[in-house]
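Minimal example, chain plus zinc ion.
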Amino acid sequence: MAELARDRGIVLRTQDYAETDRIAVLLTSRGRLDVLAKGARRLERSTGAALDPLHVVDVIHYRRRGLHLLKEASFVRTFPAVRGDLERATAALKALRWVVDLVPTGAPDDRPYTLTLEFLAALDGGLHPPVFTAAYALRLLSVAGLEPHLAGCVRCARTEDLTWSPEHGGLLCARCGGRGTPVSARLWRSLDALARLPFPALARLKLSDEDLAIGVALLHQFRAAQLGR
Ligand SMILES: [Zn+2]
């Protein structure tokens, strides 16, 4: 019998596989873990149901031919206010896609897991979904080692005429050759605050949903440029 391993993780997404199997992508304190649940779609009410996205689960698994095969999955907790609300659930599921892109499998770093749990709990506790999306994306980029430069121009530190320049790592002023989307002082200071403030202060930030949407679009551009796609 192969050696059994136990992990606790957040289900990021699931995908049907072969006739009756399912692959669940988990974020654990040891990075991303993809487990193959044999027959999961025939066992919807036991193992299969524990593996729903946004559930925190304990899994027992073993390796066979390069795959992690699931032996057992048990439900630990979920975020009922997120799962029960379309706007929150959509924000959470979109955010979890960033994890799939930014966190490698088997990475010995527990920060993405801790960060994701904290943010899902805050969203469940009433954090405004657009604030959740922007603040979480910024912090996940940071723990992935891809923090955008937000304190003035990346070359000369000027704080005027700033533009968004993902290929240079963040803000670049017009004098230094910045030709991207202009970024107002209000917007970059807001992004900087979203990247750093603790949850109680995040909830008090006065930001328009329009500014938050622009900020998230800039972060999408940034992620794509950093990942080369
Ligand atoms: Zn400059």
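The radius of gyration is 20 Å. The longest strand covers residues 4-17.
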